[in-house]
Amino acid sequence: MEDKTYYRTIAKTRRKELDIKETSSKLCAILRKSKDYIESKNVMIYYPLKYEVNVLELLNDNKQFYFPKVYSNDLLVCPYSNELVVSNFGVKEPCSNPVSADVLDLVIVPALMVDNENYRLGYGGGYYDRFLAKYPKLKSVTLIPKELCVRILPRERFDIPIDMIISG
Fold this sequence. Notes:
There is one protein chain. The chain is of the alpha/beta class. It has one domain: Rossmann fold, CATH 3.40.50. It has four helices and eleven strands. The strands form three sheets. It has a six-stranded mixed sheet with strand order 3-2-1-6-9-11, with helices on both faces.
């Protein structure tokens, strides 16, 4: 089996060929019909990078939204505000003060690829895996184009599977 670096290269190339705007809207519509999303009041989403599934349209829904903020090796949970700054990783993060992750009902996790066993391939920092390991009861979902779904990805002992994958 190829290594994670190989799959990251494939995913980044493949997603540049997709109509990510249309795909993002379609995936958000599917998410909105899911029981986990409907029942959630407090949802953590992410600010998308270029070519990444854009979940920002969810901000129009009647829910409390939170964004992750990287601090050392951890992800902090920060209430959404219009005031965002660009982090060292080139990702927009909130300026609001962090709150306990215990308030969350659902976390939407970005991914470059996913496999049939709900493992995801991220960017290699392990932030979401560490976060999900700390909060095993927290429901997680990844929205991803079907072109970025594979049978099996390489994984390591610290990789955490996602509860639900929405693809299309």
